[in-house]
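#help-structures
NK: newbie question, is this the right format to request a structure? protein is Methionine aminopeptidase
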Amino acid sequence: MSLIKSLDDIEQIKKSNQIIARLYRDVLPKYIKAGISTREINEIVEDYIRSQGARPACIGVEGLYTPFPAGTCISVNEEVVHGIPGDRILQEGDIVSIDTVTELNGFYGDSAITFPVGEIDEESKKLLEITEKSREIGIEMAVAGNRIGDIGHAVQSYVEKNGFTVVKDFAGHGVGHAMHEDPIVANFGRKGRGIKIENGMVLAIEPMVNVGTYKINVKEDGWTIVTKDGKRSAHFEHSVAIVDGKPIILSELD
């Protein structure tokens, strides 16, 4: 799959991403409250995406054992990524990560956000703040002429300086004509390593940050990733295009 997208391609990828941006800003905050199940959240997500003429692209993605059964990944507290929506009920003080992929007219959007459920403890507030900020720091490094390793190095350095750890078993990636494309965009690494960043690349930059160890386990469902020590994890993601040498966030509302 080509790494380089035309300006027309980027505009179409942006349209797909804007659906997720509206979902996260205008729709979900009304529902992310104690007492709602992750299954109910998924139904809201799927209904909204379809109302916008798009497809919830997570449905049917092939996995270790079975295809992913839902339209979005919903991961609570110790769940890092790929949580399957179900009967789990959100409680006051939880944190919940929503990772959504849309497909609109053959172009893919991909973005993730971690919401607080009501009032959360100070450690969780810091976790969300640092994870979101690390994403922005990574995006700042996505300029033409830099290397992919510059993104990961910046994310890792900032996260570890603030006392947290980055998940190393999962990474960002190219996106646009498919959900996952080259290159892999790790959240750790060394400056000056990896392929050179060029105009026309579209990258999903997505730090996954843990309170404790960076190590993870996979639950018996073959999908849900949890922290090995049971401590909390947060996840923030944007799809970013490199245009005129600079990063343009496609999954953020204008």
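mod (FA): yep, format's fine, and the tokens are attached above. Residues 131 and 209 are 6 Å apart (CA to CA).
NK: thank you!
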